Automatic annotation (TrEMBL):
Any single GO CC term annotated in Swiss-Prot or TrEMBL for this entry: cytosol
Any one GO biological process: glutathione metabolic process
Protein name: Hydantoinase B/oxoprolinase family protein
Organism in which the protein naturally occurs: Parapusillimonas granuli
PANTHER family: 5-OXOPROLINASE RELATED (PTHR11365), HYPOTHETICAL 5-OXOPROLINASE (EUROFUNG)-RELATED (PTHR11365:SF23)
Domain Hydantoinase B/oxoprolinase per the UniProt entry, residue ranges: 13-520
Annotated InterPro entries: Hydantoinase_B, Oxoprolinase-like
GO MF entries: 5-oxoprolinase (ATP-hydrolyzing) activity
Top-level lineage group: Bacteria
Length: 521
């Protein structure tokens, strides 16, 4: 028997809303579990570099998988909205699956592949599911911060149908397979995304059939409540304008992130005017959607962390980054290393709002280092990326966490997986004791990662490392953390360019420690 929860004369009572909202969350979490278990890539299985989102028919986000990367929470719904713009709803059909890795339409760099599927019920489009994950390889040069343009970064997949009315498009798969180093693993993860879409569709239709739910009405209610929660939290802040300035190591001269936050009633605006221009010969540029995503994450984490993320959660927020700046870079600059800059945005927002946050005030931290190895070993091609996390900034309430990927939530790649997928021996991985800045509450410690390359053939190895020159700063008198560093065979090296490793080469990298809070006693 169908319930009457969506009769026009009724409102969603809190208990019913909580039950239905939780069921929507369980739908995407179940799909996420299936995706992780079927994934070919340790980037998904071990490092958590993926996300799944369910939206309504207009592309408004309703819920996302529990372990979603924070940036994906905002970028994936934007991708759905681009799908609606480029494939009008009347042209979509059951069984369609749209794919892209366009940084400006999706997650900000081509190494993430995103897929979107329309969900129909009784011939009516009622929702979209969206999945993204960092694929094992996308071709081009080995991912590093030294790639000057997107044309050298790898295969660009325009927004097109991978499946058309249930029929896989063999030509699309052939183009992808022909341009990547590990085609079976890459396509395995992409088809795993397709399975996740199928799970979401089946479970959502079961829910809608069981309850007679009007998903559009539920979406309006959910988004309204989450919007109200954030507006109330913003309204509790004192009106005013608050600024913070950060610097990134960059290459020839430091890049500047200038952040101004304006609070007016229940609205909050973040303006990055004064930020450095885009970098024409490096891949550290950030596209607008990624800038918005990590700004939104910072605001939501500070002010309304307990309310589930939906489209409404971010309506009180507006973000401006000047066109052509490093935070609103334009095609065709490289964006593959966009996390080096994008991960600085939450600390910038935290720093700007710090004077009015009280116990929520936090020092700067560092995100992670990405080590990528690519080459041949025993007659086969391999491409492996591993994450090495760093120290979080301390807060007014507690020390920073050590070995944490913040503001992202990527996992440290397990040693056993690294050794199984690449010809390396890990000599040790441990906390870099004392690397967190001193303070009343010290910053979190970074990691020390020590490995030796043991393959017979030379391979390419890159390191996405930030905070080498300008370490995470402390606040309220706390000291800065120690900067990151890289050694190869005992020699201090600049990680910017791709290195050629030969058998016996030993690499030691140390990630930065977080800033401390409060003057040390």
């Amino acid at each position: 028997m169908k319930s009457d929860i969506t009769k026009p004369s009724m409102r969603f009572d809190p208990v019913t809303l909580e039950i239905i909202w939780s069921r929507l969350g369980s739908i995407v979490d179940e799909a996420a579990t299936g995706f992780v278990r079927t994934s070919f890539s340790s980037l998904v299985r071990e490092a958590n570099d993926y996300a799944i989102v369910l939206t309504d028919a207009d592309g408004n986000s309703l819920t996302q998988s529990s372990f979603s990367i924070p940036s994906f929470i905002s970028t994936l719904p934007r991708t759905v909205q681009h799908v609606i713009r480029m494939f009008p709803r009347e042209t979509l059909a059951p069984g369609d699956l749209i794919i892209t890795n366009d940084p400006w339409l999706a997650t900000g760099h081509i190494h993430d592949v995103s897929t979107v599927a329309p969900i129909f019920m009784g011939g009516k489009l009622v929702a979209f599911s969206a999945v993204t994950s960092h694929v094992p390889d996308i071709g081009g040069r080995v991912r590093s911060s030294d790639v000057p343009s997107i044309f050298e970064e790898g295969l660009q997949i325009p927004m097109l149908k991978l499946i058309d009315k249930g029929a896989p498009q063999a030509a699309v798969e052939a183009f992808i397979r022909a341009n990547v180093r590990v085609p079976d693993a890459t396509m395995g993860d992409i088809w795993g995304q397709g399975t996740a879409h199928e799970q979401i569709r089946n479970r959502l239709l079961e829910l809608l059939t069981e309850t007679g739910l009007d998903l559009a009405a539920l979406s309006a209610e959910i988004c309204s409540r989450s919007e109200r929660a954030l507006r109330d939290a913003i309204d509790a802040l004192p009106d005013g304008e608050y600024e913070y300035r950060m610097q990134h190591d960059a290459f020839s001269s430091p890049l500047t992130i200038q952040c101004k936050v304006r609070v007016r009633g229940g609205d909050l605006h973040v303006d990055y005017s004064g930020t450095s221009p885009q970098v024409e010969d490096k891949s550290i540029n950030v596209v607008e959607t990624y800038t918005y995503a990590y700004t939104a994450f910072a605001v939501k984490a500070l002010l309304s962390p307990d309310v589930p993320n939906t489209e409404g959660s971010f309506r009180p927020l507006t973000v401006h980054a000047p066109v052509g700046s490093v935070l609103n870079a334009q095609h065709p600059v490289g964006t593959g290393a966009r996390g080096q800059i994008g991960h600085m945005l939450p600390p910038a927002v935290f720093g700007a709002l710090g004077p009015i946050l009280g116990p929520r005030r936090r020092a700067e931290g560092s995100g992670n280092c990405v080590v990528t190895l690519s080459g041949r070993h025993r007659g086969r091609q391999f491409a492996v990326s591993s994450f090495v996390n760093a120290g979080q900034g301390a807060s007014a309430e507690r020390p920073g966490f050590s070995a944490l990927s913040f503001p992202s939530n990527l996992g440290n790649s397990p040693i056993e997986i690294i050794e199984a997928e690449a010809p390396v021996i890990v000599n040790g991985r441990s906390l870099r004791r004392g690397s967190g800045g001193r303070g009343v509450h010290p910053g979190g410690d970074g990691l020390r990662f020590d490995f030796t390359y043991v393959g017979d053939e030379p391979v390419s190895c890159s390191f996405l490392m930030a905070r080498r020159v300008v370490p995470p700063q402390g606040t309220a008198g706390g000291e800065a953390g120690l900067p990151a560093r890289l050694e190869i065979n005992g020699e201090l090296r600049d990680p910017t360019s791709v290195k050629q490793l030969r058998k016996g080469d030993r690499i030691v990298l140390e990630t930065a420690g977080g800033g401390g809070f409060g003057a040390p006693q």
